[in-house]
Design a protein that fits this description.
Elements lengths: L1 H10 L6 H13 L6 H7 L3 H13 L3 E6 L2 E9 L1 H8 L22
Antiparallel strand pairs: 1-2
Helix pairs in contact: 2-3
Length: 110
């Protein structure tokens, strides 16, 4: 399990909050999220935690908050060009090969 975490951590090194940040970015890139609460509900992340997570993704330039025309109190979460490029450049994204399913030797499979 340690080897798996090491590999995943190295792949997600540039994503704020690691796997949680990547999952959030995936939801934002793939879907039409009406507001900040939508990805939190979908992913099962507490809404207060999602606020800090979105803040980190905004700071990293991966997503941005945009005013919703129908209700200016709400903000829609939208992936930036950098966020979309980062997502599509990651292993397992559409059109990208998933790394070998073989476990690392450190996991004891060889």
């Amino acid at each position: 399990m340690r080897a798996y975490r090491t590999v995943v951590a190295s792949v997600l090194d540039d994503v704020p909050q690691g796997a949680r940040g990547y999952r959030t970015l995936t939801v934002v890139v793939r879907g039409d999220q009406q507001n900040q609460l939508a990805p939190a509900t979908y992913l099962g992340i507490d809404r207060t935690v999602m606020t800090y997570l979105i803040d980190d993704l905004v700071t990293a330039g991966l997503v941005e908050r945009r005013l919703t025309p129908a209700d200016r109190r709400r903000r829609k979460i939208v992936a930036t060009a950098r966020g979309v490029d980062g997502y599509h450049g990651s292993p397992g994204a559409p059109g990208r090969p998933i790394p070998s399913q073989r476990r690392p030797a450190a996991c004891g499979t060889e």
